[in-house]
């Protein structure tokens, strides 16, 4: 016996060393031996792979011919039956070979049932396994007219999906003896007659008719009657363990009651009363029977789904999600999942099928998911079926995280982005919602160049719901750096936010659909930290202000919240700015008292800004600033009066008419003598006696444009109604021209124009336009006067009354801020003198 074992070991070692390459027409390697099957059958079972494809696994059965002729005979019978019998319930044959040393059979990768039961003892798998074995036995007995005669736990193998496959075909043969060529009966060589002794443990489960060699009874028995006994033996081994003697078959043990009643009928000694596997299958599948379960029904439906009607499929898949959690994980992974993927691939699935795939995929590890689910999902994205694409978008967040980022960027996203351009609104909206799920899988370039721009484009979509969801999606992407999405990179770039997203948000402020306006405000509030403070002041707040009085309360509430966030941002930025941008000029101690006009203006502005910070009210600063602005630029006719003499003035706001009526001649006198007075004296007193009305407008809050007043002159506090009643005689004007280096402007009624003119008494050298010093502020009116003064060389000059040829009369340019002033009178013609001062204001 020792020498035989040594010989077998040597033979198997040679087989293993050959690795399949030395076996004719056999392309599978001989791997590790499955020790769990040792002694359970006549075969040595090995793990295996295909020689030219290591990923294609297999199981190889090897029998050394040195064990004897009987072993060789049953091995040859098994190889013959494996090649000719093909059924889903029979162990799938891949390849076989026979040499002088051994017989080789390669099958699909399986595990012996005895080993599988130690790992998974699920009742559902046992039910399904017995169902499949009974169905396969019916095929062998009734369709093939054969007897298996070797059904036991050692002849059943389990696939990765948990399905039971029938093997052990060593004794399979026909109950009818072969007929010789001459018509006489040949020697009966049925395998189950002569070779039962080579099967380990066969005597403990041998059928009574075979043990008693009642071959005539066996030949005349109904199909499957003999194998009914062996089916009962299998049931006993599955629930109660190994079978050592036939007497154990009479004990129920752990066998369920509904199944035990059937076992009693399978163990009937009389073949005529014994239940066959086909009858067992029929009886156990009845309502309330052992095989009447949702798991069995679902498994049967999936196997035959190709021939089912559409309404049957819809009814089945509607309840599949509730059934999957109760199915064995291995069965769901390797049996149900492939069927569902196949169904989706050929266009027979919908959202429910995809839901089942995703639910099963949650129980897979990363490698299994990439091997089973990822290829199918990637292929489904290229489908033109809108229903299928909608299902993929709807369940995007359930499966996209398990797909590698490289696969998403190269194979999924190019097909995904076409949903933004789809003509169906449902597809566009589903694509927007799915963007949040796919964004973490995209690179920075793809995120900012493709995804963000597509979402911004949908802010102008015709469907208001899509516009709203697009804004919400943009907001979540912009705040991803704070942990909303957890993007791998820096999220939305600063340039994308500034040049792509910000204009879209400002446009959405004016959207007619209230939820869109609310969404744009919410996004702006969440992204307030990303806005530049100068942009907020110049662009956002002007667009935001009208929404504070929006007709919808949610919009008003969101607008107020957004405004507070924006103002806080601007306030924080303003604290970082210096007190003034003007450069203060400090004169040396030995310097002359005369300071250039430009430098004096810049210095005065700096002092005015400082006084503003120290002042309790804004009025005092406004007057100081205004005085500094005009310092060195305008010298009014009032400077010719003695110091300390109060100038009589007339002040009238634009908003109120002149209270007192004046005669026509007096009006002309008043108007003829009206001059623009310099508000220098008021700067010291801070009262309105100088002609400035502090409470009229918010002077000092306008940004200078071009170093002068901006276009909003009607809001800068300038009061054109400050009129001086100082005499404007030629002598006074001449005296003023002789004692000052600046110009004096006098409003007078021209004798022919019928309107208001401005007389400019000027010294030629001092009126040439010069560049203003940096930081100074020059009134626009003064700029205009310089331009006019420089351009009068070629004009026809008319001497004014009291001035010998030194005064040029020009029409004063109309300032935009003097909106109430009508040059030339109200409704009168251009050359008609005004009859009322109200016409000018």
Automatic annotation (TrEMBL):
Look up the domain of life of the source: Eukaryota
Which Gene Ontology cellular-component terms appear in the entry?
cytoplasm
Specify residue ranges for compositional bias: Low complexity.
Answer: 682-691, 724-749
Protein kinase domain location, by residue?
32-296
Name the segments for region: Disordered.
682-777, 792-841
Q: MF terms per GO, please?
A: ATP binding; protein kinase activity
What residue spans carry the Polar residues bias annotation? Answer: 756-765
Q: Return the Gene3D superfamilies for the record.
A: Leucine-rich Repeat Variant, Phosphorylase Kinase, domain 1, Transferase(Phosphotransferase) domain 1
The record's section on InterPro entries has: ARM-like, ARM-type_fold, CIK-Related_Protein, Kinase-like_dom_sf, Prot_kinase_dom
Q: Which GO terms describe its biological process?
A: tRNA export from nucleus
Write the protein's name. Answer: Nuclear aminoacylation-dependent tRNA export pathway component
What is the source species?
A: Coemansia pectinata
The lineage is:
Eukaryota, Fungi, Fungi incertae sedis, Zoopagomycota, Kickxellomycotina
């Amino acid at each position: 016996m020792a020498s035989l074992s040594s010989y077998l070991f040597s033979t198997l070692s040679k087989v293993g060393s050959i690795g399949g390459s030395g076996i004719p027409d056999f392309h599978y390697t001989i791997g590790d031996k499955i020790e769990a099957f040792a002694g359970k059958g006549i075969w040595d079972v090995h793990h295996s792979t295909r020689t030219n494809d290591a990923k294609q696994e297999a199981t190889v059965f090897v029998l050394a011919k040195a064990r004897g002729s009987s072993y060789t005979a049953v091995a040859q019978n098994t190889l013959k039956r494996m090649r000719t019998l093909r059924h889903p319930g029979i162990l799938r044959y891949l390849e076989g070979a026979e040499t002088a040393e051994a017989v080789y059979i390669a099958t699909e990768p399986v595990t012996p049932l005895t080993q599988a039961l130690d790992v998974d003892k699920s009742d559902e798998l046992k039910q399904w396994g017995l169902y499949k074995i009974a169905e396969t036995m019916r095929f062998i007995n009734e369709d093939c007219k054969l007897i298996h005669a070797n059904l036991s736990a050692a002849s059943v193998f389990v696939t990765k999906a948990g399905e039971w496959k029938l093997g052990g075909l060593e004794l399979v043969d026909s109950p009818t003896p072969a007929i010789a060529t001459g018509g006489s009966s040949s020697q009966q060589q049925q395998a189950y007659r002569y070779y039962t002794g080579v099967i380990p443990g066969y005597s403990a489960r041998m059928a009574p008719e075979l043990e008693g060699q009642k071959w005539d009874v066996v030949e005349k028995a109904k199909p499957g009657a003999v194998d009914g006994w062996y089916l009962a033996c299998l049931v006993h081994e599955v629930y109660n363990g190994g079978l050592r003697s036939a007497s154990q078959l009479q004990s129920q043990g752990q066998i369920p009651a509904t199944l035990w009643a059937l076992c009693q009928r399978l163990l009937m000694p009389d073949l005529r009363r014994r239940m066959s596997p086909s009858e067992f299958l029929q009886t156990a599948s009845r309502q309330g029977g052992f095989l009447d379960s949702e798991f069995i029904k679902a498994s049967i439906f999936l196997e035959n789904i190709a021939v089912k009607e559409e309404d049957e499929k819809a009814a089945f898949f509607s309840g599949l999600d509730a059934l999957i959690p109760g199915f064995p994980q291995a069965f769901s992974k390797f049996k149900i999942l492939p069927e569902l993927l196949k169904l989706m691939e050929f266009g027979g699935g919908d959202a429910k099928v995809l839901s089942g795939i995703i639910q099963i995929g949650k129980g897979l590890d990363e490698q299994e998911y990439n091997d089973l689910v990822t290829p199918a999902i990637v292929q489904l994205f290229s489908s033109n079926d809108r229903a299928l694409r909608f299902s993929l978008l709807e369940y995007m967040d359930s499966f996209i995280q398990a797909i590698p980022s490289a696969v998403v960027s190269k194979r999924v996203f190019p097909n995904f982005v076409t949903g933004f351009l789809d003509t169906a609104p449902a597809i566009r909206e589903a694509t927007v919602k799915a963007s949040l799920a796919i964004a973490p899988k995209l690179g920075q370039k793809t995120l900012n160049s493709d995804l963000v721009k597509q979402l911004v484009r949908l802010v102008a979509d015709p469907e208001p719901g899509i516009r709203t969801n697009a804004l919400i999606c943009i907001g979540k992407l912009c705040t991803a750096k704070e942990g909303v999405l957890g993007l791998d990179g820096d999220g939305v770039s600063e340039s994308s936010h500034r040049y792509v997203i910000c204009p879209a948000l400002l446009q959405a402020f004016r959207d007619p659909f209230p939820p869109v306006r609310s969404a744009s405000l919410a996004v702006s509030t969440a992204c307030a930290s990303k806005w530049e403070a100068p942009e907020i002041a110049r662009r956002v707040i002007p667009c935001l202000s009208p929404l504070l009085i929006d007709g919808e309360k949610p919009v008003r509430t969101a607008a107020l919240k957004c405004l507070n966030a924006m103002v806080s941002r601007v306030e924080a930025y303003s604290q970082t700015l210096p007190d003034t941008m003007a450069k203060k000029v400090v004169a040396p101690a030995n310097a002359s008292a005369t300071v250039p006009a430009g430098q004096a203006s810049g210095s005065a502005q700096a002092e005015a800004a400082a006084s503003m910070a120290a002042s309790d009210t804004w009025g005092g600063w406004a007057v100081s600033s205004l005085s500094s602005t005009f310092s060195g630029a305008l010298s009014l006719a009032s400077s010719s009066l003695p110091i300390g003499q109060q100038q009589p003035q007339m002040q009238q706001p634009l908003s109120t008419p002149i209270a007192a009526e004046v005669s026509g001649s007096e009006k002309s006198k008043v108007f003829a003598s009206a001059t623009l007075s310099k508000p220098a004296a008021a700067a010291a007193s801070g009262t309105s006696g100088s002609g400035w009305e502090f409470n009229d407008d918010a002077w000092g809050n306008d940004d200078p444009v071009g170093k002068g007043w901006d276009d909003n002159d009607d809001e800068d506090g300038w009061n054109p109604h400050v009129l001086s009643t100082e005499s404007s005689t030629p002598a006074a004007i001449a005296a003023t021209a002789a004692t000052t280096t600046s110009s004096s402007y006098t409003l007078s009624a021209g004798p022919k124009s019928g309107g208001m003119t401005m007389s400019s008494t000027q010294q030629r050298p001092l009126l040439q336009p010069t560049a203003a010093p940096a930081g100074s502020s020059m009134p626009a009116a003064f700029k205009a006067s310089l331009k006019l003064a420089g351009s009068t060389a070629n004009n026809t000059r008319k001497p004014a009354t009291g001035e010998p040829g030194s005064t040029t009369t020009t029409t004063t340019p109309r300032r935009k801020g003097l909106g109430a002033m009508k040059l030339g009178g109200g409704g009168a013609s251009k050359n008609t003198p005004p009859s009322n001062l109200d016409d000018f204001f």
